[in-house]
């Protein structure tokens, strides 16, 4: 009985020592958190292994993460996965659908982004820029001839339109002369002519019937205007005037003293024609509603694909610029020692307990062997 008791006692003592040795060894990985001193000398094995080599450990973890986990190939492969693209596309499409149910004007949207009074500030900025640019243009181009400023395409178009202008002028003149208003105008001109020529005019009036004479002038005037020679003359006059206009310098048409006023007036006209109220106060959803299906089915998938492809293509540069190794090292360094201990225990708690139990089992087994050897010897 004493033999069995001795062996059992040795097994219990060995198991206890083995379990406690492993338990203390595990705890010494983390504790104590700080170095302990006795008679101004640091106590051995303080602080614990991880607190003592924390910075070195953080640096090595950062390098391992970048070298073996978050590698360029791994990031690229993940970004180009079809499932990831599909998930991101669905998420973006869902967010877009939710936003389309709202009514948000550009003014409100910009206000949310911190740009207050967007409409007023934008119009003020546009007005300042326009007036400055118009003044600048008028200043640097003041010695330029108009043919240098008018676009070639517009110049050619105007030249081809001159015959049509001539036809329109002759047509309008013919209609005016043949009208009652034209007749009254001719009669007034005849009466004025007679009055200005005194007695000769009075004598002529006695022999001339103003009414019938005006009708005759109407008929002859219409014939004269519709003659080809008259049309050619009008067309030639228009061409000459146009060439004279093209030969003039800008400063002849717009004197320097009137430049600022013209720039201000042009700016005001452009700003009034600019539909700023519709742009800033109409809900964005109203503008996009006609394109909602196309945005969901084509634009969002295309944008997501291009974005992921861009990130994948430049993943090496992005990882290098982000310096992930340093980022991981910095983040680990910010953890407090209790947090690191808690994290490791949460992840490996079961394994650490098994190490403790294993120490007890091995210690017990060694105790049994020691008991047997003690009895035999």
Which short descriptors sum up this protein?
377 residues; mainly alpha; two-stranded antiparallel ribbon; 2 strands; 82% helix; 1% strand
Strand order of the largest sheet: 1-2
Secondary structure: helix percent:
over 70%
Strand count: 2
What's the Cα radius of gyration? 49 Å
- Main structural class: mainly alpha
Q: How would you state the average pLDDT, rounded?
A: 79
SSE arrangement, N to C: HEEHHHHHHHHHHHHHHHHHHHH
Q: Could you describe the largest sheet, including whether it forms a barrel?
A: 2 strands, antiparallel
Can you walk me through this structure?
The chain has 377 residues and is mostly helical. It has 21 helices and two strands. The chain has helices at 2-27, 49-52, 54-69, 72-79, 82-100, 106-112, 118-140, 146-149, 152-178, 180-196, 198-207, 210-225, 228-247, 250-253, 256-273, 276-281, 284-288, 292-313, 315-322, 324-334, 337-376; strands at residues 37-38, 41-42. It has a two-stranded antiparallel sheet with strand order 1-2. The longest helix has 40 residues, at 337-376.
What is the topology?
Elements lengths: L1 H26 L9 E2 L2 E2 L6 H4 L1 H16 L2 H8 L2 H19 L5 H7 L5 H23 L5 H4 L2 H27 L1 H17 L1 H10 L2 H16 L2 H20 L2 H4 L2 H18 L2 H6 L2 H5 L3 H22 L1 H8 L1 H11 L2 H40 L1
Antiparallel strand pairs: 1-2
Helix pairs in contact: 1-21, 3-20, 4-18, 5-18, 7-15, 9-10, 9-12, 9-13, 10-11, 10-12
């Amino acid at each position: 009985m004493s033999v069995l008791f001795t062996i059992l006692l040795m097994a219990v003592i060995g198991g206890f020592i083995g379990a406690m040795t492993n338990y203390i060894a595990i705890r010494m990985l983390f504790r104590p958190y700080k170095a302990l001193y006795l008679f101004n000398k640091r106590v051995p094995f303080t602080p614990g292994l991880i607190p003592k080599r924390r910075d070195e450990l953080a640096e090595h973890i950062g390098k391992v993460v970048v070298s073996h986990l978050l590698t360029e190939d791994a990031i690229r492969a993940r970004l180009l996965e079809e499932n990831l693209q599909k998930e991101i596309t669905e998420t973006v499409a869902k967010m877009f659908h939710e936003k389309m149910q709202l009514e948000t004007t550009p003014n409100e949207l910009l206000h949310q982004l911190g740009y207050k009074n967007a409409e007023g500030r934008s119009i003020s900025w546009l007005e300042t820029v326009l007036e400055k640019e118009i003044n600048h243009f008028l200043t640097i181009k003041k010695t330029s001839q108009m043919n240098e400023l008018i676009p070639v395409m517009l110049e050619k178009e105007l030249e081809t339109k001159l015959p049509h202008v001539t036809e329109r002028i002759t047509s309008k003149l013919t209609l005016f002369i043949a009208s009652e208003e034209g007749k009254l105008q001719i009669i007034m001109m005849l009466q004025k002519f007679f009055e200005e020529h005194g007695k000769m005019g009075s004598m002529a009036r006695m022999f001339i019937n103003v009414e019938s004479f005006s009708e005759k002038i109407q008929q002859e005037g219409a014939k004269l205007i519709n003659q080809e020679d008259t049309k050619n003359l009008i067309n030639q006059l228009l061409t000459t005037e146009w060439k004279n206009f093209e030969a003039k310098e800008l400063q002849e048409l717009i004197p320097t003293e009137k430049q600022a006023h013209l720039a201000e007036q042009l700016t005001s006209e452009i700003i009034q024609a600019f539909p700023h109220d519709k742009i800033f106060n109409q809900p964005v959803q109203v503008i996009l509603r006609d394109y909602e299906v196309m945005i969901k089915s084509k634009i969002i998938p295309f944008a997501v694909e291009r974005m992921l492809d861009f990130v994948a293509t430049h993943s090496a540069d992005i990882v290098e610029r982000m310096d992930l190794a340093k980022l991981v090292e910095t983040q680990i360094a910010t953890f407090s020692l209790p947090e690191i201990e808690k994290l490791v225990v949460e992840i490996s708690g079961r394994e650490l307990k098994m190490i403790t139990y294993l120490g007890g089992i091995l210690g017990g087994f060694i105790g049994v062997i020691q008991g047997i050897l003690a009895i035999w010897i």
